[in-house]
Amino acid sequence: MNSRIEVSQNIVAILGSETSSEFRLNRVRESLSLDKSSDVSAREIYFLKLRKDWSHVSEEDYKKLSDLLVGSDTQDIKDKSFFLLTPRIGTISPWSSKATEIIGNCGIDFVERVERGLYYSFTKKIQAPELLRMGNILSDRMTQNVILSLEEIPQLFSNHEPGLVQSIDITSTKINALQKANTELGLALNQEEIAYLYESYAKTNKDPTDAELMMFAQANSEHCRHKIFNADWTIDGEPNSKSLFDMIRNTHKNFPDGVISAYEDNAAILEGHMGKRFFPRDGKYILSEEEVNLVIKVETHNHPTAISPFSGASTGSGGEIRDEGATGIGAKPKAGLTGFSVSNLRIPNLKERWEFKEDKPDRIASPLEIMLDAPIGAASFNNEFGRPNILGYFRSFESKNSVNHFGYHKPIMLAGGLGNIKTEHALKKEVPIGSKLVVLGGPAMLIGLGGGSASSLSSGEGDSDLDYASVQRENPEMERRCQEVLDRCWQDKNNPILFIHDVGAGGLSNAIPELVKDSGHGGLINLRDIPNSEPGMTPMEIWCNESQERYVLAISEKNLEKFSNFCERERCPYSVVGEITKGNHLEVYDSYFDNYPISLSLEVLFGKPPKTHISYENKSERSLSLKLPDEVSNEVVYEVLRHPTVASKTFLITIGDRSITGLIARDQMVGPWQVPVSDYGLCKTSFSGLSGEAMAMGERTPLSLISSKAAAKISVAEVVTNILPSGISSLSDIKLSANWMGSPGKLEGNKDLFEAVESVGIDLCPEWNMAIPVGKDSLSMSTEWSKNGEDKLVVSPLSLIVSGFAPIQDISIAVTPELKKSKKSSLLFIDLAKGHTRLGGSILAQLNNQLGGESPDVECEKEMPAFVDSIHKLLSHRKILAYHDRSDGGLITTLAEMSFAGRLGLEINLDSAIKDEGALLQFLFNEELGAVIQVLDEDLDYVQEALSDAGLNEFVHNIGSLSDSADIAINFQEENLLSLPIKDLLQNWNKVSYEIQSLRDNPDTAKAEYINDTKIKNPGLSPKITFSVPEKIDLNSSRPRIAILREQGVNGQNEMAAAFHEVGFDCIDVHMTDLIDKRQNLQDFQGLVACGGFSYGDVLGAGGGWANSILFNEELRNQFGDFFQNENVFSLGVCNGCQMLSQLRGLIPGTDNWPSFKRNISEKFEARLVQVIVKDSPSILFKGMKGSVIPVPVAHGEGRVEASNESLKNLDKKFTTISYADCFGEDTETYPLNPNGSPHGIAGVTNENGRVTIMMPHPERAFLNDQYSWCPEDWLNYSPWIKLFQNAKDFID
Prior knowledge:
Helix content is about 30%, strand content about 25%. By secondary structure, the chain is α+β, with helices and mostly antiparallel strands. The strands form 11 sheets. The protein has a 9-stranded mixed sheet. A 7-stranded mixed sheet has the order 18-20-17-21-19-22-23, with helices on both faces. A 7-stranded mixed sheet has the order 36-38-35-39-37-40-41, sandwiched between helices. About 60% of the residues are buried.
């Protein structure tokens, strides 16, 4: 058998063995307009560049390499029509970096680099032009090339001589040279900035270089300098004394309490609670009692997401994560949020009457393409990095009349979150002269050039090639390695970091100068010391590219060795690239050409070009009337529930890991049926105690087209009504991030922006003592293009997205929208709008393409602080059973979602709420502020008295109760006005999610989930516990040592260690490098647990790189083999650790029937709370648990068991430890109850003696009850999973 394909003298190719699934091939056929019978095949192909001394390579070596890459038995592509999709020529993919590293770690020393492509082949003969056309349809222009011949493959590995720095001749051509460079380089400088630069250089008698100009453009872009927010304003001819930024700062000046750092760093820092943080120090996991402060940040990545949705959203999330980690002198990202606003989706199988024909420029993705790919990109980065995404929003909006076209052709892609930081690390340290400048993370690559400038332009305004060049590519596993280094630094008693800055817009050309400037000194950089994967780049490209997953740090020379040791242990690349020097000059020396591509005063770079001036004139406002249906019908309700803004967001949620870290107390999913209706996210401060952190979002952007002031205030207020059930103590505890998107200079953009900022910065937030210590603006939210000679313009509404964060004293008092079917109870509607029922900007108006009417507004400015106090009091006394606010879709949506969460019918009586039947439509569909709470009838007087104390007694209405019927009945004066079957409501509400999943995922699993989510008569999660769960664990003196084993990319070690620590183990942090370098040996441990995550980014198969690095290393292979043979120790593998250990079955006795773990049947990452039944097996970890049905989180992309029929029978008989169970506690293969399609529902197995157990679910993320998104109310501190960990301790004892 030929093990390879010869490409050239030192390049070979290996075809992968796995082909695309049939439904994926059908998608290919559809894209290429081929009929379903067309014979097309798709599989991976690997290209390997061999080292210069490759001639000694034997056939056995090639066979070893092919086995590692899981090569096909047939290595022949001759006589076939085919095309290849390869990484873009001139780039190195993140996959390549990791795969090359795995190959090296496996002892294969003859491969210099490996790249991966996709091989599409056809049985019929197809001519080259047609193949090229097909390839262009399937390729991503930003990241891929189409190749028709293997002869072109050497280009992938070609190395070019370094490019030259370019000087811009202003000596002879004066300012015109700068004008020309501005256009050709895509600098996006305005005329005042060009004049400033010309004057500055003219004084020095020096021509600028392209590197200096690009650096200046990034440092002074709207993206980085926020020129509009710092601008001077003139209104109606009168100068205004405050800038927009002044008005935002006013909120913090008015109420600085609880804020440690504002406007000074990558993120804001808020005061948190004391807590016992759990982390490794000097290799051993410890509890550290300390102040656990909050780091908060929310970013946008709109332009890149419009151009390349997956990578744009992925790097948007990654960039925000870096902002948190680089706060102070090192912080820990903890939980994330994501948001999207796009124009009408126009789903092919769900065409709605409010949608009109799409019109957009070719260079940007369609709204549907964005929502198919961007959420996966954002989720993938969070998943692989190991940050749970527990909050989000999604809005679809587009409106067009004869004059204006409004929408989100340039989408909003929002990425944010919260982290934790020590008090002593909140501020940067002094950076003395001589401090070393270090670049931490991946190498420079020619991607993302000029992103800061590009994001400051309207979509369509720049050159399309520059558009594509400005988008970055993601490598979350590298960022995880960087964060592990940062973690080692902040966990150390002597943090070696003096100063840290993430590398984002502008690349090193922005990050290094900012660090040097803030040091108060100058800097000298050695350009060729910057890690670089593409030697052909020019100095400008090396300096200014936006390769991701990098940080710049200042480290004192005395601490450099310690920092280096941290990096080497984590296999995290780093380089000392320069040092802090005396003066205020920045010099970048190029040793290759012996010149200085950059030699510039920091005063010029960060000087003050002429300030921006903005003005507007107030005009008389003309309001448009609304024309809406006269009557309310079931179909109107169904349409509202089908609107993407209102509809279920399941398709956005289950792709994202929400249980990683084990510190999540509340995600989007609610109740036994896991319905996505929670409006807040909630974290635990630490594994012990009741304190935590909450976050929520608010936005109502369509209202801006009526009143930007009202829209802004409603957005702030919606944060309050969303975060309220988390248990916040007072209104002023909430600190806000304000993200402003708009188009100043377009239509009424100037006026809308100023009035919106003023309404919250001067009026509402000071009134409520709410500070806005952090935020972001993106003020180029328009799309311009020409078509057939006609100029086109789509402008977004002025869009304020507000995110709120607050410390929580007691997370146990939090409630959700899940109605409780317990004792007799009532639903109280709290009308915070005080009787107003304005429909302007509502979903109902949008369904009817109506822009007019009156906008909802905040009517409860005086009452809101007391209302928050009252709700907190009621929660503290356990007087509220369920809570849900009124928002998009109106009160009818609030009631429907509460009904969904509890699978309960409602009997609604509106006698006290409306005067006559004619008010029904406005009452049900207005989107004013308000909330519905469920309270016990016996508590009604107490609750109403508390709300009366807030001044709201007149506006609290008892509107009904639960019913045994499967519908929502709306009654008025003993007459039924509407009867809405819950099943019909669920089917409409879930329709958008179903249709998008059908396009994006396996359509069969999409259908199965739709059926499951719209069922009425099933009990949902139904635990059954066959053993007693301890209320408290008595720890004896014995503390056996357990190796918490991880490889690069593993991210679940902390919660795993916490679970074993809880039952009395000494948990030791063991990286694979510790075993390789002999700092640790497995013989010193009584237990070993391989943790979850994405080792090597799941390159070469989930767990494959990790396993092969053991199997191909003789010393490691023997060490692991000896451990598995030892009958006095135990091993556990969870998720990625399960996948890895399954591939070590040859070293583990009694594993002849063990399966492999393959891609989920849905072909997507699955993150859910499911339940498993414990089987009868010899596993020492499941002793005494047989027959129990226990909910457990899952989060994996490759969890489907694959084994021979004989092995499956044997597993079933004896070695299956747990299997996925349906709501009746029976084994199931039905998706999504079985999230991966494993036969017989197999979720975990053990070996013959029961000492080695592997499983895909995550018990370590649910050993405490408050780690669940839902569990029975009678469960106390520990969940039933604590017994698994106790069993491990009992086995050792």
